[in-house]
Design brief:
Structural class: alpha+beta
Radius of gyration: 33 Å
CATH class of one domain: Mainly Alpha
Amino acid sequence: MTACTQPGCTGSYEDGWCNVCGSPESPGGAAPSSGQGTSATGVSPSAVLGAGGPEGPQSARTTPMREAEYRGSTRTSSSRLASTAIGSARTGSRTTRRVGTGSTRLRAHRMGAGLTTVPPLPVPDPLQAIMAVPEVAERKRYCSSCGSPVGRSRGDVPGRTSGFCPTCGAKFDFEPQLQPGDLVGGQYEVVGCIAHGGLGWIYLARDRNVSGRWVALKGLLNADDPDAAAAAIAEQRFLAEVEHPLIVEIYNFAVHDGAGYTVMEYVGGTSIKDILQDRREKNGGVVDPLPVDQAIAYVLEVLPAFSYLHDHGLLYCDFKPDNVIQQGEGVKLIDMGGVRRIDDDVSAIFGTVGYQAPEVAELGPSVASDIFTIGRTLATMVLDFRGNTTTYVDSFPPVADTPVFARYDSFYRLLAKACAKNPDDRFGSVDELRVQMLGVLREVVAADRGPGSPATTSSASQLFTAPTVDVPERPLLWSELPELEVDPSDPMASFLDGVNVADPVARVTALNKAPERTVEIRLATARAAVAAHRIDVARTLIAEILADDPWEWRALWVGGLADLAGGDATAAVASFNAVYGQVPGELAPKLALATACEVGGEPDVAESLYVVCARSDANYTAPAAFGLTRIRRARGDLDGVLHSLDLVAPTRGSYAAARLQRARALTESGWGLPALDDALRSIEGVPLTPAAQSDLRIQVLEAALAQIGQNAAPMGAQIADVPAQERPLRDAIETAYRERARIADTRAERIALVDRANAARNWTLW
């Protein structure tokens, strides 16, 4: 087998797919794609596969950088900024059933992506999953048709395990239909019950025809309707063709005593729902959500399974914490009962209240509704999500009331886009979601490292180039911000590669000769028009792109550049803020937004965004650190200035400028001799010009001389190699002036420096 090429993955390719991370073997290796019901159940023995908890049915038919900078707040969150309209905000409430892209450039890698770890869980012996007494607790007994409580006790009379719903008259039966030793389909020997779900009991069985392997049997339909069972089996044969290492495998469909059963792979492990429940029990019954990085890692791991299903024209429909099982260091997507074809407008729809997208009842499921369930599941993992089936059934609590959202702004933006009420405003595909989720995970891990931790690694964005310019003295210009990467799938991508014209006017002329005016051509032309000072032309092209596709955020990016170039920082903030909301895992919009906020007089927001950039990606650390320095210097926060300058790495071209700024800040600090000593030591080994080194040495030594003139220096104190005493300091100052005079640019400057040397020297009286 061929080893997987995804970074950090240890798997191998089997039948075109990695057996660990689920990614396709090659960019072209993915196969081509093409009334609600009670939630189907999974096959894990540890999953709680009933119809909800004690509150009622949940499945229904129908510095160092200071800690304050890391806590997050609505005061500094960029979500408070104005945002340019995009998507449905431009088009009103119309729904176009936007479809996802088939692009493979957005595929990513495995659990935790090498950024974080999730504690492994042991895989138990299947026999340990057998229930000694298979019974459904009364609090979990609900009618499968109307959701009303059934089979409940009355006084001292225990509730019935079978009968008819007093509300709608539908039959219910919570007794196992299969007994140990029963042979289903002449092949599957029942061992016992392991769980109960929406369609009945889940049974552990051995496959007599395949070396006695463990399988799970799940009821398919009511035993009283054998014709319907046969029809259902015929209808769901396509599930047996689903083969992916992250998806529970469907082996067969069988009939026993008129009832249909799905025969599937037995998945031993622990569901995310049970993991959350276990954390709650260990926390004294108080909700203890998962850390955000671990929750994202779980979801990232299972997303390739959704890509596989969507590529094959299938929808999962009912994703929730119950249906993800952790096995050792991996996960598996279980419960294929709700899976249906994308073009199926007839079959019953399976979904769970609190997870199902609001448009499903009217429009049916779609790729967008699957993405909604993913976002809701991720939110459930990290929030004490009270009211998720009522008040917040299709929304989230306010940021101000949710510490996780306040701390991780990008994470909130990710959930907000994934769970947008208009399906067109969600991510266009699972691949898009996965790439942005990976970027958000990187930011979350960076934030959790603690205050003052700079980025140690760089990531290659598929959407933006890395910043290449560090400017200590001023905010970046529009032309110095990262550039959009060209989408290689655009028909004119190769044409753009051939347009190597530096002059912006000539470049506009060359681009106007393109055989086809694709989005990439128009974006490139608009950017060239900005460089040519024809912002009016750029705005016309941007409006044209957005008229064709209101969700094309790249047009807003170029619009933000045009706004900055035209001196309209407020409009630039709105444009970049909108882009940030569309690609929350990308750092380029955050750097651009921070720049626009700094220019436009929003220093608090700019600072919070610069912090995110500085700690998340080494490519962004230096430009963000200089932004932090400017903001903190203006605020008089010298300690913050020093710590922000310390973030610039020695490998960066601007390292010398950062150390020189740091030394000057210490020199001007008034913090005494230790700070002056630190100032000179800050530039040891730093490749500064001789003039800069001499100027700083003179400045530091003169400050030290003034300092000891006011206060006696501690015994043995030194400023670098000079004792902190008047005579040694004067000698050192004189020497420094004379050395500086030797490299002076003009004769007049040389004479002035010699005069200063003479003024500083120790004169001896004879």
